[in-house]
Amino acid sequence: MKLNLAENLTELRAKSPLVHNITNFVVMNYTANALLAIGASPVMAHAVEEVEDMVAIAGALVINIGTLSPIWVEGMKKAMLAAVKFGKPIILDPVGAGATAYRNVTLSELLNTASPSLIRGNASEILALAGSNIQTKGVDSTANSTDSLQAAKLLSEKYGCVVSVSGATDVIVSGEKVAYVDNGVSLMTKVTGMGCSASAIAGAFFAIQEDGFEAAISAAAMMGVCGEKAFEKTKSPGSFQIAFLDSLSELSPEELVELAVVRLL
Amino acid sequence: MKLNLAENLTELRAKSPLVHNITNFVVMNYTANALLAIGASPVMAHAVEEVEDMVAIAGALVINIGTLSPIWVEGMKKAMLAAVKFGKPIILDPVGAGATAYRNVTLSELLNTASPSLIRGNASEILALAGSNIQTKGVDSTANSTDSLQAAKLLSEKYGCVVSVSGATDVIVSGEKVAYVDNGVSLMTKVTGMGCSASAIAGAFFAIQEDGFEAAISAAAMMGVCGEKAFEKTKSPGSFQIAFLDSLSELSPEELVELAVVRLL
Amino acid sequence: MKLNLAENLTELRAKSPLVHNITNFVVMNYTANALLAIGASPVMAHAVEEVEDMVAIAGALVINIGTLSPIWVEGMKKAMLAAVKFGKPIILDPVGAGATAYRNVTLSELLNTASPSLIRGNASEILALAGSNIQTKGVDSTANSTDSLQAAKLLSEKYGCVVSVSGATDVIVSGEKVAYVDNGVSLMTKVTGMGCSASAIAGAFFAIQEDGFEAAISAAAMMGVCGEKAFEKTKSPGSFQIAFLDSLSELSPEELVELAVVRLL
C-alpha cells in the first residue's frame, strides 16, 4: 500500500472541507482553530432543529461526547441519520467511555443509530467501548495504545469501520489492516482537546479521502508530526497549544512525508 | 463628519462598560478576553431567569446565534425586550445566516422581537439576511464584503439600524451614510471568533458612543488595525490569536487614528 | 502553623487528582488547561444522568455558576449530594453573586443542598453572598478583598467552610484563622477565567490535602506566584494567559516556597 500523505494534505487545503462538529464545550474553540489552521472550515451546530441542514452541506460529521446531555444526544442521533442519508463520513470520539454508565449507554445508542466511518479514542476509551472491564480516569487514558490492538480489531470488525487509538504510538485498524504511527510527544496529553482535535482533523481528511484507513493514518501522522514541530519551540503546555496550531498551518506536505513514521502491517 | 476614534477608545477604556453577551460556545472565552483586553468588562448570561437583570446593569447587549437552540433563543428574546425597555443598544451577529432554515427562522423571530442598533456579519450572512438566495458555507463567508452594499443598505433601511459587513474591506452603512474601513489582514479569517469578537467590541463602543455609525466604524477600525499590528508579530494563526489580544490592549488611541484607513462616502 | 507548600505541590503532581468541574462555558477550556498544567486531571460533566458516577471517581468537585441555567443547577445539586455521600470536598465559586436575583437564589439553593469545603470568589461576590447590599458589576469585582474580611468570616462560620477571597491581597479564612497571600499581579483581572481557575486549582489541592485552610492557602499562593512569573515574561493579556499556563507547569515546589508571601494571623 502506498500512502499519499502529501497529496492528502494538499487536497485538504485546496478543498477546505466543511467539518460539522457536535462536540464538547471544553474543546470547541480549540477544535475550530485546529480545523482552520490545517485549512479546513469548521462549523458547530447541535440543535435537532438544524443538524440535518448542516450535515447536508458538510463534508464530514464529527460526534464527540465529552460533555453530553440528553438534548445533545438527540441532536447527535439526528445528525448521524442525516449523515447516512447524505453519504457523509461520521467520526465518533467516545470521550470518557467507561467513566460513567451514562456515557456507556449513550455510546451504545449512538452506535446503534449509525455505524461511524471512524472511531477515534485513547486506549482506555477503546478498551471500554470494546467491553473490557476498564475504569477510565475521567477522560484521560490509563492504558497503553498498543495494549488496545485486540479491542480496536474487535470494534473495527463489529462496526465495519476504521478504529484509531491515540497514544505514544497511534494504532490504526481497518479490518485486517493495521498501521502504527510513531509520531507525537507526551506533552500533547497536557493540553486539553488534543484528542478531540485529532478526531476533528480526521473528519477533514475523511471529507477529502474516500479510503478511510488512509485518511485516519494521514490525520494521526499530521497530529503527531505537528506535535513534534511544536515541541521544538517549547516544552511548556500553554505555549505548546499555540505552537501546535501554528504547526498545523505551517507544515508543508513535504515535511509531513519526511517526518511521518508510519509502519504498515 | 469628523470621526473621534481616539476619543472613543479613550472613553471606552475609562468607562470600561459592561457588555452582556449571549453568544456561542465556540467563542465565549475569546470574546471575553477580547473585551477585557480592549478595556471593557464582559459578562455572559443566557438563562431566561436572569437576562433581564443582567441587561439592566449592562451598557450593551450582544446577541450571537453561532450555536443556537430553542432555550437559548428564548433567553435572547427576553434579553432583547429588556434592552428595549432599558434603552440599551443591541448588537446582532447573524452567524451562519443562510446555512440552515433554523437560523433563518430564528433571525426573523429575533428581528421581529426588537430592532437592533447594529447588525454585524460577514458578506454571506448579510446577503442571506437581506433575502439573497445565497448558500453560506457553514459560518465562513463565500462572498466579498463590497458586493453586499445593497444588502446592507436594505437591512439598514428596514430595521433602522447600522449594518457592518466584515471582510477585506469592512462596509458600514447607516441609512444614506456609507463608510469603508480598509484595515485588517486575511489571517483573521483563520482564527475562530474574530467576527464574533468584532461584534462584542462593537457592543463596547455602542455602550459609550451614542452615534451608532461612529461606534461601528470605531469598532471596525480597532479590529482591523489590531489585526495588522498582530500580523507584524506573526504569520501563523495560533500565535496570531494571542498577538491580537495583546494588540487590543497595547494599541494607543493615537496609533488607532494614525493607522485607521476609513473612507466616508 | 507550618505551611507545607512545597510538599503539597509535589504531592499534587505525584497523585494527579481527578477534579470534576461543573463550570461555566467561558472558562471550561482554560480551566481544564490550568489543571493539566499544574499536574492534575480535569473532567467536565454536568448531566444529572452522570454526575454521581463522575463524583465517585473524582478527588474533588468544583461548582461554578458563571453561566447557569435550571438544568445545570439540577446537575450541580445532584453532584453536591454525591460529594457528601462519597466524602469528596466541594469547592463553590459564586461567580456573579449579587449581579442578578437568579444567581442569589441559586446560590441559596446550592448552599442549602450541601456545605462546601471552600467558597472562593472575588470581594464583590463574597460580600453579596454574605448578605451585603452590594451590586456587582457583572462578574468583575467592585470591592477590595481586604474589605471583605468580615463577610468571609461570617460565611466561614455559617457554612463551616474555608472562604478564600481573591484580590490584590488574597484573604483566606477558616473559622478563627486568617491568612493573607500577597502574591499576584493586577493583569490577572484582564484575563477571563483566572478566578475560575483559582477555584479549580483549589479543588486539586483539596483533593490531596485534608487541611482545607492549608489547601486554600496553597492554591492562592500557587496562583499568585505563577501570575508573577508570567508577568516577568509579558505585560499584555493575550500572551499573559499563555505564560500563566506555562508557569503552572514550570514552577518548582522550591520556587513556590521561595516566592510565596503568606501572612498567617
From TrEMBL, chains A, B, C:
<keyword id="KW-0067">ATP-binding</keyword>
<comment type="similarity">
    <text>Belongs to the Thz kinase family.</text>
</comment>
<comment type="pathway">
    <text>Cofactor biosynthesis; thiamine diphosphate biosynthesis; 4-methyl-5-(2-phosphoethyl)-thiazole from 5-(2-hydroxyethyl)-4-methylthiazole: step 1/1.</text>
</comment>
<keyword id="KW-0547">Nucleotide-binding</keyword>
<keyword id="KW-0479">Metal-binding</keyword>
<keyword id="KW-0460">Magnesium</keyword>
<feature type="binding site">
    <location>
        <position position="166"/>
    </location>
    <ligand>
        <name>ATP</name>
    </ligand>
</feature>
<dbReference type="InterPro" id="IPR000417">
    <property type="entry name" value="Hyethyz_kinase"/>
</dbReference>
<keyword id="KW-0812">Transmembrane</keyword>
<feature type="binding site">
    <location>
        <position position="120"/>
    </location>
    <ligand>
        <name>ATP</name>
    </ligand>
</feature>
<keyword id="KW-1133">Transmembrane helix</keyword>
<feature type="transmembrane region" description="Helical">
    <location>
        <begin position="54"/>
        <end position="73"/>
    </location>
</feature>
<feature type="binding site">
    <location>
        <position position="193"/>
    </location>
    <ligand>
        <name>substrate</name>
    </ligand>
</feature>
<keyword id="KW-0418">Kinase</keyword>
<protein>
    <recommendedName>
        <fullName>Hydroxyethylthiazole kinase</fullName>
        <ecNumber>2.7.1.50</ecNumber>
    </recommendedName>
</protein>
<keyword id="KW-0472">Membrane</keyword>
<dbReference type="GO" id="GO:0004417">
    <property type="term" value="F:hydroxyethylthiazole kinase activity"/>
</dbReference>
<dbReference type="InterPro" id="IPR029056">
    <property type="entry name" value="Ribokinase-like"/>
</dbReference>
<keyword id="KW-0784">Thiamine biosynthesis</keyword>
<comment type="function">
    <text>Catalyzes the phosphorylation of the hydroxyl group of 4-methyl-5-beta-hydroxyethylthiazole (THZ).</text>
</comment>
<keyword id="KW-0808">Transferase</keyword>
<dbReference type="Pfam" id="PF02110">
    <property type="entry name" value="HK"/>
</dbReference>
<feature type="binding site">
    <location>
        <position position="44"/>
    </location>
    <ligand>
        <name>substrate</name>
    </ligand>
</feature>
<feature type="transmembrane region" description="Helical">
    <location>
        <begin position="21"/>
        <end position="48"/>
    </location>
</feature>
